[in-house]
Design brief:
By secondary structure, the chain is an alpha+beta fold. It has 2 domains: 125 residues, no CATH class; 356 residues, Glycosyltransferase, CATH 1.50.10.10. It has 16 helices and 21 strands. It has a 5-stranded antiparallel sheet with strand order 1-8-5-4-3, with helices on one face. Helix 3 packs across helix 15, helix 7 runs antiparallel to helix 8 and helix 10 packs antiparallel against helix 11. This is Glycosyl-hydrolase family 116 catalytic region domain-containing protein. GO terms for molecular function: hydrolase activity, hydrolyzing O-glycosyl compounds.
């Protein structure tokens, strides 16, 4: 296991001299703040560089350290080619590698020795990544799965998680781990089992685990857990595993059912921790399209799983709950529902309606819990009202600046890549294939190319295209699910 989860970054450079004379130059590696203090030179058989207690930067060549830069002098004779291995090694006291290596130097030494093997398996992994007939889309996919790999954490206690920031959040991890579902089955199973192990007696799946953070009121966490366990069964068809998960799934669903405090058929938001839009500007919300629709999606899957589990009582219970919630949200706003004639709206606790258009309601299209005519109307509204040069503004019209966030940023109308890919996958579901692919490319270009960083960012200013928030966002890797299950194998997961 340690071989497949080494805390290392490998860079292989080939320097080819096409000239008839010798060429000399320097390769300069600037590791920013990793080596700000306590830096010392290191040298071993076949490589040199610098190190401190937790990091080591080396190359299979002579090196110099000067002014915070690792300088690698290069000299190539006429027509000569040389290959250089530049290695950044990290040491984490909690990482699984501590079970095999005592310090950062041992990891560095091991990695240099098995470089060719690591290159080979990395190449094979690259070949396992699905391809479409669209080279641009394929290229974007490869960049977007990087955080799915980079943010997969394997601890010395044999825990596995895809990190939101440093923890397993069902919401983030659901989108991050489509790759794991297909290519890392054991890791995905492990994360489901860990989630069950942390389930509260009430049925609540904690907001995050590893470490444990509980906000008590989030409504989508349990739903994402249900959707995650369901897709695992849909992909691998193991009834014994479903049977072992079934009790936890029912407890998770029943917790959601109990949150229907008004008897309308939909869970009520209590605090601003209702769903992914967890900001103070929506703390007075009672119903949102996103958590209402993901609740229906979870119920729909539980109805099916009840049949697979021969649980007739649960099937009847969940079917009745689904119909009640479905009928409620599809009533017009004048009748007390959430439909305003063009798209679903937010309803506040005082009964007022917020008619801003939210992109996140496309989750209902993705999971087929919205009538087709309404799905078409939602997408048309997004295209008409919310489309920007950089993608769909997740909220439109923007709130004024005194709402708490600058217009076109964060939860006030930014373009979020993970959300955009969910939207695009939903469009595939209703036959808008080229439109979906074009929108993926629009967002990816703004996120990766135009920004110049080729790093998946949290969100994009929908007026300026500026990349904002933390980069290397795991849930942006949800593009893998879109490509693999939306384009290449659309019939595997219903």
């Amino acid at each position: 296991v340690a071989i497949s989860s080494l805390p290392v970054l490998l860079l292989e450079l080939k320097c080819n001299n096409p000239a008839s004379h010798e060429e000399t130059f320097n390769i300069i590696v600037r590791p920013e703040s990793l080596f700000a203090n306590e830096v010392q030179s290191c040298r071993a058989s076949g490589y040199s560089g610098v190190m401190n207690t937790y990091h080591q930067l080396t190359c299979n060549s002579e090196t110099q350290w000067k002014n915070g830069e690792l300088i690698i002098p290069i000299s190539t004779k006429a027509y000569e080619q040389k290959t250089f291995h530049i290695l950044l090694t990290c040491y984490d006291d909690n990482w699984i590698s501590v079970n095999q290596f005592k310090n950062v130097g041992e990891i560095t030494d091991y990695t240099h020795k098995v470089w060719s093997m690591l290159k080979e398996v990395t190449t094979l992994f690259g070949k396992a990544i699905p391809k479409t007939e669209d080279a641009v889309l394929d290229n974007y996919l490869r960049w977007y799965i990087i955080p799915a790999i980079s943010l997969t954490k394997c601890t010395k206690n044999n825990e596995v998680l895809t990190m939101g920031y440093r923890e397993l959040n069902q919401r983030d991890s659901y989108w991050t781990s489509w790759l794991h579902l297909v290519l890392f089955k054991d890791a995905e199973r492990k994360m489901i089992e860990e989630s069950i192990a942390y389930q509260q007696p009430s049925g609540k799946i904690p907001t995050t685990i590893l470490p444990l953070i509980e906000r008590n009121d989030d409504l989508d966490i349990n739903a994402f857990f249900i959707l995650r366990a369901t897709r695992f069964y849909q992909y691998y068809h193991n009834k014994d595993e479903l049977a072992s998960h079934w009790s936890a799934l029912k407890k998770a669903m029943d917790w959601l059912l109990a949150r229907d405090c008004s008897g309308d058929g939909i869970p009520c938001q209590v605090s601003f921790w209702g769903d992914w839009k967890d900001v103070r500007g929506v703390e007075e919300r009672k119903y949102s399209p996103f958590f209402s629709l993901i609740y229906l999606a979870a119920l729909k899957q539980m109805i099916w799983l009840s049949s697979e589990s021969d649980d007739e009582a649960s099937h009847r219970n969940y079917e009745a709950a689904y119909q009640k919630g479905y009928d409620f949200i599809n009533k017009s706003v004048e009748e007390g529902g959430l439909w305003n004639g063009n798209y679903y709206c937010q309803r506040w606790k005082d009964g007022t309606i917020n008619n801003r258009l939210l992109q996140d309601q496309t989750i209902g299209i993705l999971f087929d819990v919205i009538p087709l005519d309404k799905a078409q109307s939602i997408v048309n509204s997004l295209n008409t009202m919310s489309l920007t040069p950089y993608g769909i503004a997740e909220t439109f019209p923007y709130y004024p600046v005194n709402w708490g966030y600058v217009p076109a940023t964060y939860h006030n109308g930014a373009v979020w890549p993970w959300l955009s890919f969910m939207d695009c996958w939903a469009r595939l579901r209703i036959g808008k294939t080229q439109e979906a692919i074009d929108l993926v490319k629009r967002v990816a270009n703004a996120d990766l190319v135009a920004s110049g960083d080729w790093s998946p960012n949290e969100h994009i200013n929908s007026l300026t295209g500026q990349n904002l928030g933390f980069q290397l966002q795991g849930w942006n890797a949800g593009l893998f699910g879109l490509v693999y299950f939306g384009l290449i194998h659309p019939d595997i997961i219903p």
